[in-house]
Amino acid sequence: MSDQDSKTVALEEPQLFGHPKGLFYLFFAELWERFSFYGMRALLTLYMVEKIFAAIAERDAATAVVYASYGSLVYASTVIGGQISDKILGMRSSIFLGGILMALGHFVLAVENDIAFFLALALIVVGNGFFKPNISTFVGALYKDGDVRKDSGFTIFYMGINIGGMVAPFLCGLLAIKYGYHYGFGLAGIGMMAGLIFFWSGIKKNVFGDKGMPPSQEVYNKKIIGVPQKTLIPIIAFLSAPGIAWLLASWQDNFVSGIFKFIGVAVLVYLAYIIFNLKTNEARKKLVMAVLITFFMTLFWGFHELSGSVITLFASRNVDLDGIMTAAQTNGLNSMFIILLAIPISLLWGYLSKRKLNPRTPYKFGLGLLFAGLSFYILSISGASADENGMVPFYYLFAMYFIISIGELFMSPVGLSKITDLSPKNIVAFMMGVWFLSSAFAFQIVGFISKQLAIESTDGNVGGLQTLAVYTDGFSLIAKYALGAGLIVLIFSPLMKKLMGKVH
Fold first, then answer.
1. Model confidence, pTM
2. How is 394-421 classified by DSSP, letter by letter?
């Protein structure tokens, strides 16, 4: 589409700042949804350690298993929710269903009861599966193929994600420390309701036109056991929550880990089958590279997502935060740095491209893993500056988040587009599902590491010199693995460039 064509389209649609007006309704809906999600996540580990599992010595280990299982299921659910939306519900109905389930989950979290806690997590898991994949897809649906405004539209949308991710930990964390965790969870629920209200107002004002409707009204209204699918799916979604809650509550058996091991093996076997049966050597090479990119991204997220678990506990027990912020609020630092660094790094790639120096994807991924390793190395040496109480200066944590955010910007924005470029057209949807699953498997890495660094104690004030060496030694080991992975990727980047062919 030419610039002139884009201007013609612009005149035909409701516009705001040169973009479809619907973009800004989706921007605020996603901002508030991420506010609710990250506000709750900032409190989750601390709440489990201090309240849910406070009476047992293995409270850190139990928290690690539940947090990892919850994170894995949250991201895996997007694969199922996306498929149901594509085939039956459409994006509008899916977003509403997901938003209602998530809001309900956040409000149930505000109830002081162990059974309610696991049920709340289950509702958020199911709700996220319907909401998350569809609102991002909805943004793309607002633009026609080839519209030059699409990239900048997604940039605006993703800024909303990070604004929500930055502000939520500070506000929910503040309420939690002043009035109790349940007030923080309640605020997260209010945020989710605000997002739904923005989305609903956009529909009432018809800013989305005919976008996001069910793919087929016949399928949408088709009756199964006498109930239309549009009604049956929400019923099944609600009824699935108790089963998921049971899985999460069975942390001692860790059924979720077993499920993901089976899924991982099945996906790898199926990918090997697809690669073997591809007709051209070039297609095989590209798909192998798509699998490698997904693996590297899984590894990076496995280290990065420790921010909501081990790093939050480290901040609570071993970082001098007095007068600066709470441990929960430190979860907002990553989104803050993403907002500050996204444009400069984007400009850097543009500057290097003009001089034909923009590194190919494998080099960016290798550098991203090196930044992750460096960030954990910073934490590992913080013990040398600890005071007599085993508390380290805040600037170590601040520097860690700054460096790992750079690594994220080197990897995450380019990974998704490369999956679509490298995958054969007939399995792009499947590979996108595998890409979403990579985040689910990353949480299994989080769970494994968190269990290794678990502190056995029923002391609510455990920390300082009792925990410092456990964390710094663990961070040192993580740094070595991340730096080693980054170096391996950089060493083999020339070979991986050949696998990618003409894809940059």
1. 0.91
2. HHHHHHHHHHHHHHHHHHHHHHHHHHHH
